[in-house]
Amino acid sequence: MFPYYAAGGGWRIQLGWGRIPQPGMPFNNLMLLPPELTLRTTKSGVRLFSVPVKEIEALFTKVQQAQNLTPAQASQQLQAFNASDRLRLKTTI
Fold it and tell me: What's the CA gap between 88 and 72, in Å, rounded?
């Protein structure tokens, strides 16, 4: 069972915890963005959904937005970012 926090208003927020090996270090863990957990009825029955909490949006500034790109167009737009830039991609496929 994943640890979660029951916030006011009925929210269920999962504690984000990941494991990534850290060579030469005595630990391999990191904190992840906390997701809100919800139950939704789908055509296959009730399912658990996990979406980052809405407060995360305050950490990001939208630089550009594009829709209906081909893979080549998307690749070309990504080349404009330097390796040192912070980059968040949100996609719908």
Answer: 19
Q: How far apart are CA 13 and CA 50, in angstroms?
A: 9
**Domain definitions of the chain by residue range:** 12-80
What is the rounded CA–CA span in Å between residue 12 and residue 3? 10
CA proximity to 19, closest of 9, 10, 11, 27: 27
For 16-50, how does the pLDDT look when each residue is reduced to its tens digit (9 = 90+)? 777 888 888 887 777 788 888 889 999 999 999 98
Cα radius of gyration rounded to whole Å, the chain: 18
User: Structure pTM?
Assistant: 0.52
Strands 29-31 and 17-19: antiparallel
Find the length of the chain. Answer: 93
